[in-house]
Design goal:
It is a single chain. The protein has a single domain (7-130), classed as Trna Endonuclease, Chain: A, domain 1 (3-Layer(aba) Sandwich), CATH 3.40.1350. It has a 5-stranded mixed beta sheet with strand order 1-2-3-4-5, covered by helices on one side. The protein is globular, with a radius of gyration of 16 Å. It contains 3 helices and 5 strands. A hairpin with a 4-residue loop joins strand 1 (7-17) and strand 2 (22-31). By secondary structure, it is an alpha/beta fold. InterPro entries: PD-DEXK-like_domain, tRNA_endonuc-like_dom_sf, YhcG_C. It comes from Adhaeribacter pallidiroseus. This is YhcG PDDEXK nuclease domain-containing protein. One of its GO terms (molecular function) is nucleic acid binding. Residues 1-116 form the YhcG PDDEXK nuclease domain.
Length: 131
Amino acid sequence: MELGKGFAFVARRQHIVTDTSDFYIDLVFYNYYLKCFVLIDLKTDKLTHAAIGQMNMYVRMYNDLKRSEDDNPTIGIILCTEKDETIVKYSVLAENEQFFASRYRLYLPKEEDLKQLIETSRIYLELKQQY
């Protein structure tokens, strides 16, 4: 699916090296409208706290090693087959506007399914704001 306007492809499986370790970021984009890098981590299973910690580290590393002074903070996106709301609630995702986790689908859902998903998400956000 299309990411939207302003995205430029930077790298696939980008190799990041520290003094002691090697890491590979699945996809890296730069958004010219947002003026920031967007890191995408692809997970073929459900969301885990380890995946969130990994993306947190990638975003911090990218901000330190790649981001210029004119750039906004790096955004990290985790795409997974299943999002566990409890893990999201008690992780860095709940407090940070730079990290996102979302479920992906291998096919485009029917219009009715999309409407139901949007309504469910809207109700969840309303309940979350109440607490």
